[in-house]
Design goal:
The protein is of the alpha/beta class. Among the domains are: 139 residues, Resolvase, N-terminal catalytic domain (Rossmann fold, 3-Layer(aba) Sandwich), CATH 3.40.50.1390; 120 residues, Putative Large Serine Recombinase, Chain B, Domain 2 (Hect, E3 ligase catalytic domain fold), CATH 3.90.1750. It has a four-stranded parallel sheet with strand order 2-1-3-4, sandwiched between helices. It binds zinc ion (ZN). The site of zinc ion has 9 residues, from helix 9.
Length: 500
Amino acid sequence: MKAVAYCRYSSDNQREESIEAQARAIKEYAEKNNIEIIKIYADEAKSATTDDRPQFLQMIKDSEMNIFQAVIVHKLDRFARNRYDSAFYKRLLKKNGVRLISVLEQLDDSPESIILESVLEGMAEYYSRNLAREVMKGLKENAFQARFNGGIPPFGYDIINGHYVINEKEAEAVRLIFKMYNDGYGYRHIIDELNLHGYKTKKGNTFSKNSLHDILKNEKYIGKYIFNKGTKYKHNICKEDVIIIDNAIPAIIDKDLFEEVQKKMEKAKRTQAAHNVKRIYLLSGLIECGICGASMTGCLGKQKYTYYRCNNKQRTKQCDNKDINQDMIENYILSELQEKIFNDDIIPQIAKSLNKENQEIISDRQNMQKTLLKRKEEIDKSISTIVDAIAAGHFHPSLDAKLTELEQQKNEVEIRLRELELKPDVSIITEDMITAYLIKDKDILTKGDRKKIKAMLPTYIKKITVYHDKVEAILKISINQKVCTWMVAASGVEPPTLRV
Ligand SMILES: [Zn+2]
């Protein structure tokens, strides 16, 4: 039998056998049992809690190739650290016809061994958790003494003998950041100022919006020692493992200024959120300039006004069309839609007329298909008549030419038939389906989720054209493109006039 060895070693656990020792034991076992080891996979993990096992995953992947029949580990806890993992990967191996062998634990497939296996695995899991707890205990001890727990020290501090000490030069920068922000300067301005003074982050990079944000939020600067508070990447932390100690480290910023800044940040966040919602330009892609024909795109103006502007005007200034206020045009278009399409009196009418149109399309297609099939049959008949004539010895060059022509015609008919088949099958659409579809979109419009509204608009609006003194909107109605590709211009769409 051919097998591979898998070894794993965590450097933070001194009691473990080294990778060499594990490999040696596996080789001895293999020799005794007439097993040939064709490869050794080994992972060296930095910590018992990280799940970084590139070689393990490679081994699982290689098991698909049918070049080995077993994986040998020194102990089961080398294979996986929890029962879920173990069951998952063992099943993968089994699927590939590969079994797991442990040198120290004798396992076979009897029911007892399965129980034994899960007990052993349970113990390994317990041990791993216990170790994590021990590690946490050490970190907590550090925390209670407000000692540094590793990593990169925060900007503004140095770590001396495990304690936080103010780095005066960096602390100046921290004060500058808080003061400027509190005075109403934006991140851009603050970054420029920091660059002007040559300040760099702890990693030696220039400051970014994110790094400023993190600094402005960091309670360490008012002397709070915080250990193990969740970050955006790490939410699943038990409350009892979070430690906050006031006045435990030297403060750089006074509490009043810090609180002021927090309030301003909260306010900015709310304004930004409100702004982002509005900043979805519902009509982009649908709206164009009636003067030069360029498309118009959403822009943010000086007083936070948003509007649509001709792209040509924006880039080359060669168009004199006016900008159009975003709220005005959008409100206008949405109310037109409410009135002309999503109206309880009109929806049934539209559904009825769309359904009628669909039925016509269906019968047109059926007729077309019938005609084509008939034509194909005729061509086939002609072809076989000529072939028969030639076979009977009546060869003439004109017959050859005729045959070529017929083959070409047949080819064209077949292509057209194929095209018909490829068209979406609209025969399943009913009037009720169309009504339901319209009501769904009416709900979207009523509920006001701008993202969803933006996604549905192209179904109903063909084009919006902005002239000097008026806006023309051409509506269309098209049912879900995946199902159906037809559309009709809505009746009664007059060029609406809007004063800009
Ligand atoms: Zn233009």
